[in-house]
Amino acid sequence: MKREQLNGIRKKAVATWWDDGIVETAAGLGILLIGGIGLLGYLVEGKVSPWLYALFILLMVALAFAVRKAVMWAKARWAWPHTGYAVVKGRSARKVLWGFVVVLLLLSSAFVFPSYLPTIGGAIGATILLSVALSYGLRRFYLLAALSLLLGVLFQITGLEGKMSIYAILTVIGALEMVLGVARFVRFRREVVRNEG
Amino acid sequence: MKDEIYSKLASLNRLINEPARLAIMAALYDLEEADFVFLHRITGLTRGNLSSHIYKLAEGGYVEVEKKFIGKKPTTVCRLTERGRKAFEEYLKTLQPLIERHT
After folding, report:
1. Distance (Å, whole) CA A143 – CA A180
2. Which helix (H) or strand (E) holds A88?
3. ipTM value
4. Contact A13 B26 (CB under 8 A)
5. Would you say A23 and A181 are in contact if contact means Cβ atoms under 8 Å apart?
6. What is the mean pLDDT of each run of 10 residues along chain B (103 residues)?
7. Contact between B100 and A2 using a beta-carbon 8 Å cutoff
């Protein structure tokens, strides 16, 4: 068996994890919530009690932990009965560490050049999205990465405030990822119905 | 050079060097675990074939097989063991390029 054939099988096995759009929808919703709440907090800054704001942040952290469980539940209900059960492996500790180093480097550049926060924020988003695209061979994530960088540059040019631009990028990317996920889920369900009569 | 090739071929991992078993190991490599239905779909093997090859891989200590409930449904899941993972990596790194070059 040739290496290309083996790689083809590996890609097909991993692609199944993303084919139903459930992971993308959940991740998009999570990013949208973080960006949306950040944006809301920014707009009403000083008008809302800091305790209430801290409670929101705690709720977000709890939600992040609940996302995996929710994904498993949704997959068990709508995907696995048709595709068979499979759980993709998490990234290796080395890859995670490298990811942290790159993001930390980019973040530290935000302290050195605070006036370039929108561009740096867009670049961090693009880096994370690119790493997902490369790891799982997902072409649509290249588009999201390009959009993240483009938004960062656009907000920089238009002079949008740094923190506000980061929240705006998160909100737009999260919403778009969620829409892509839902569209993929609808297509997946249609295909399942068509294939299984 | 030829001696080196022959010695490598002689030490070829016979358990892995079989298309069906290679396909199963490739499918499981990037996954935590998967059930028979999934492996049947991805590898295109018949259920009987799949079952016998998984049994052989399990015997060799390359794959773990476990019965568990996914939701309310009993399922047989398979996962690569550390030994299986290393054997597959070794196969890809050393033996497979050799086989491709000489076939």
Report:
1. 11
2. strand A86-88
3. 0.83
4. yes
5. yes
6. 61 79 94 94 93 94 92 89 92 72 61
7. yes
Give the single-character DSSP code of B92: I
In three-state secondary structure terms, B70 is strand
Query: CA dihedral defined by A7, B98, B81, B24, rounded to 10 degrees?
Result: 50
Given a contact cutoff of 8 angstroms between Cβ atoms, the answer to whether B88 and B26 are in contact is yes
| Set of chain B residues whose Cβ sits within 8 Å of the Cβ of A7 | 26
Q: What residues in chain A have their Cβ under 8 A from chain B's Cβ atoms?
A: 1-3, 6-7, 9-10, 12-14, 16, 76-77, 80, 83-90
Question: What does the alpha-carbon distance between residue B77 and residue B68 come to, in Å, rounded to a whole number?
Answer: 7
Is A85 in contact with B77 (Cβ distance < 8 A)?
yes
Residue B31 and residue A86: Cβ atoms within 8 Å?
yes
When CB atoms are compared, the residue of B22, B32, B35 closest to A6 is: B22
Phi then psi dihedrals of residue B31, to 5 deg: -115, 155
* 3-state percent breakdown (helix, strand, coil) of chain A, nearest 5: 85, 0, 10
CB neighbours of residue B43 within 10 Å: 24
Enclosing H/E stretch for B34: strand B31-35
Token pair for residue A162?
């740094």
